[in-house]
Amino acid sequence: METLADFGDVLKSEYGKLRSVRSSAYTLAAAALFTVVLAAVIAAFVPPHLSAADRRTVDPVQLGLGGMHLAQVAVGVLGVLVITAEYASGTIRATFAAVPRRRTVLAAKAVVVACAAGGVGVASCFGAFYAFEAFLGVDAMSVSLGDPGVLRAVVGGGLYLAVLALLGLGLGAVLRTSAGATATLLGLLFVPALLVDLLPSGWRTTIGPYLPMQAGTQVFVAAPHEAHALAPWPGFAVFCAYAATALAAGFTLITRRDA
Question: How much is the pLDDT for 57?
Answer without folding.
Answer: 85
